[in-house]
Design brief:
With 328 residues, this protein is of the alpha/beta class. It has 10 helices and 10 strands. Strand 4 and strand 5 form a beta hairpin.
Length: 328
């Protein structure tokens, strides 16, 4: 039954025992994540985005980018932008003064990656957990190349690995190692436990990213509620927030008229989608989650990147970030 459950979770046909251990569609390792560095070139998470990028201001609020440091208060010069005039000081002194700022050299990025058992599912190409890990690694490499600090939170059902944003490759490698370790714990025979609440993870994110961070969350957003709504809204007020919603083609369009065996590795259940009411409830659940998250985008202006485990990770990241026609 365990072997059958593993095949059902992966969406793969029967294979020799242990073959899924080395199948990068099911499980990834650190070497695989490191191999993606060259493929991240051309992607960007800076405010100036390609016209077709989903992060472009035409689709949602623009990324604000690095913050500004106050440098000095000085007399107004004819070449200065009138918008930089400090009117309070000008009124007090009787002479026009301007505030001078410089752009911060870098900004911290926090990449949040879901590796819970709900992500250990795939029907066409990858497990959702693999797609999330690969896309998060691509983002990490590109942000590092931009000169920004990289950190992250990687969480499974029982633990959270926290890597504070820091300069240098050490922090990047620590993040990728934590990602590889968490992905390696996902297996069909893993004991059934209560999943890590997403709200707990977002509370940790808010503790670290108080303001002026780039925060990317890669998850299927399983079990969201009003508290999730509030946490996401608060994060977006003070940071550049991007939600990367990972889904599987099977959940996007549940086939009708088939019997599905689902398993948590211990128990199994059969679902008959030939029953119209059952099929409708499954479809409503999948569509409802997407609709709710897209409503967050509309209300708060942060972008949502829809990622599919049925599509190559590099190809869809390039497409979503406006890099069509670029060589891989």
């Amino acid at each position: 039954m365990r072997d059958r459950a593993a095949r059902l979770r992966s969406g793969l046909s029967a294979k020799p025992p242990g073959s899924e251990e080395t199948d990068p569609r099911v499980r990834i390792d650190l070497a695989h994540l490191l191999s993606l560095e060259g493929k991240a070139r051309g992607l960007t998470f800076l405010p100036r985005q390609p016209a077709r990028s989903i992060l472009n201001g035409r689709h949602a609020s623009r990324l604000r980018g690095r913050g500004l440091n106050f440098e000095e208060l000085r007399d107004y010069l004819p070449s200065d932008d009138v918008r930089s005039i400090d009117w309070k000081v000008t009124a007090r002194t009787g002479k026009p003064h301007v505030r001078v700022f410089s752009e911060e050299r870098d900004r911290p990025a926090l990449i949040v990656v879901d590796q819970r058992m709900s992500m250990f599912f795939g029907s066409r190409l990858n497990m959702k957990s693999v797609t999330a890990a690969e896309c998060a690694a691509l983002a990490a490499f590109r942000i590092f190349d931009q000169g920004d600090r990289v950190g992250g939170l990687v969480f499974g059902d029982e633990a959270i690995a926290e890597i504070r944003p820091r300069r240098g490759r050490t922090a990047l490698t620590s993040f990728l190692t934590a990602l590889s370790d968490a992905n390696g714990l996902l297996r069909a025979e893993a004991p059934s436990v209560s999943p890590m609440p997403l709200n707990r993870v977002l509370q940790n994110v808010a503790r670290i990213a108080r303001r002026d961070h780039l925060v990317l969350v890669f998850s299927d957003f399983d079990e969201i509620d009003e508290t999730t709504h509030r946490l996401v809204a608060n994060l977006s007020r003070h940071n550049d927030l991007v939600l990367c919603l990972v889904s599987d083609p099977f959940a996007d369009l549940v086939p009708a008229g088939i019997r599905i065996i689902v398993s948590d590795g211990t128990l199994q259940a059969e679902i008959d989608t030939g029953d119209r009411s059952v099929h409708q409830r499954l479809q409503d659940m999948a569509i409802g989650r997407l609709a709710e998250i897209l409503d967050w985008q509309r209300r708060y202006g942060f972008p949502v990147m829809p990622l599919s485990s049925g599509e190559d990770s590099v190809a869809q990241m390039r497409r979503l970030l406006g890099q069509l026609g670029q060589r891989r």
